[in-house]
User: Fold these one by one.
Assistant:
Number 1:
Amino acid sequence: MQLSVSEFAEARGVSRQRALALINSGQVKAKRIGHSWAIDQLEVNQRPAISRPLSPRMARLLIAAMSSEPAELDSQERYFLGRYVERLRSDPSPLGLLHSWLRSRQIRVVDVAANPADIADVSSDRRAIASGISDARAGLSAAREFEGYVAASALDGFLRDNLLIESDAPNVHLHVVEQLPAAPIPVGFVIADLIDWNRPREDGRARELLEAVQWPR
C-alpha cells in the first residue's frame, strides 16, 4: 500500500515538513509520481534516526574498529573514535545509535528486482560484495535475496548486465559507495546492514555480532 506524504506523517506522528525532510535526506524511501511522493507503508515501521550521522571518514573508522581492522588515525580522530566506542559500549540501545551514525557509510541504497533464478549470478558478480543478510556471518537464510555493496561507478553496468529493474517487490538491496570495500567485507558493515532492516531476526543477529566485537584498547 502506498501512502501520501500527509498519510505517512500522520502514521509516523511527525509533521508533513519533517516527513519531507526525511524523504529528501534519504532516510525514508519514496517514489516521485508526477508532482507527489508515494511512500510504501512498510516505511512507517523503519527505525528512526536518533542522532546525526558521522562524517563518512569517521563512519569508516568506526566500522574498522568494529571489525578489529587497523586504521591510521590522527590524535583528534583517535579521541573522537574513543568517545563513540565508549558511548556504544555503555548505551542500552546501541543498535539505534549505529543506525543513525553509520548512515554516511554509503551514498545511497538502491532496491531492485532480479529473476529469483538469477540471484546466484547476481551474488557471484565481482562488481558487488555480499553483506548484511547475504553474508555468511549473519547466519540467515537469504537464498532468494541479495544484499551487497557496489561502487557508484559500476552501478549502471551492474544493473544492466544483471537485468535488475525497479519493482514493488525488490529482492536485491544494494548499498552504493564511492569505493568498494575489500572482500570479505569487514564485519562492521554486516552489523550496520542488519540493523538497517529493523526486523527482530536481523536485530538479534546484529546484537550477537556486536557483542562479539573485540574493541581496540
Number 2:
Amino acid sequence: MALADGALPVLPLGADKRPLGNCRDCTDLACGGRPNMKSPGPCLCPWPCHGWAAATTNPTVLASRQWGLAWRRARAIGYHPGGASVTVVDLDNPDAVEWARATLPATTTVATTRGEHWIYSGTVRSVNKVREGVDIKSLMSYARWLGPGTGTMTDVPAAVQDLVAEKPAVRPAPRAVAVPAPAGGGQCPHRSPVYLERGIAMAEQRITAATSGVHATVYRTFLAVLSAHGRCGCLTEAHIGRLFLAAQAKGESPRHCTDAWSNATTALGM
C-alpha cells in the first residue's frame, strides 16, 4: 500500500518471480493465462487478473477479496515500470554490470540476486536480451521490487534508447475485430451526433491514458460506453472498432477486447 501511495503500480509475484492469478478462478493459472508473457492471460475476469496490465495503485483493488488469495500466497512484490514512468535496465550477471558501469550514466541502482537493476526516469519499449545478460523493462513489462536503491535517478540515456531501437518490435499491429453493434431499440438520448462522438473520443482517451490496471480500464470503459450508448441503436461497428484499436495499442489482444466487450454486454443484460 505504501508503494501504491507513492504512485508505483504493484502486483503480487510468486516464489518463481512470476505474477500470480489475482482471483480464485485464476489460481495456478486454471484459466489458461500466461503471466510471464507481455499481455494478461486470456481469462474472462472483468477485474485485473495477472500480468503487467494488472499492476495498479488503486487501494480498493489491492485490498479486494479478488486479490486477497494472491497476496497471501505472494513471495515478492512486482511493479509496472512504465506505469511509474521509469525504465529498469536489468543486469543479470557481473559482466553485464561491468558493461553498464563502463557505458551508462550513473543513476539509481538496486542490487539483485545475480546482478543489479539500474533505474532511469522516462519510458521506452521493453525488450529482453538487448545484449548478453541485459533486459530493458519499462512499458508493458514488470519488474521485481527490491527496494528504493541508492543514487540519484537520471533520464534514460541515448545508449539505452539505441539498444531498444536496434531490436525490431515483435508485437503484432492492432487489427480490426468484427463485433456486431447492439441492436438498440431504446429511446435515443442524443440531441446530436456530436454527443456520441465526444463520448467515443473520451473513451479512447481514457484507455490511452491508462498507466496501470489496463485490463480493468478497458472493461470499465466498454461498460460505460455501452451503458450510455448501447441501447438506442446509435453505436456502430466503426465506433466499437475505434475502442478496440485503442485497447490493442495498450497491449490488449483482439481476444481480450472481444471478451471484455462480451462481459460488459452480459453485465448490462444486453
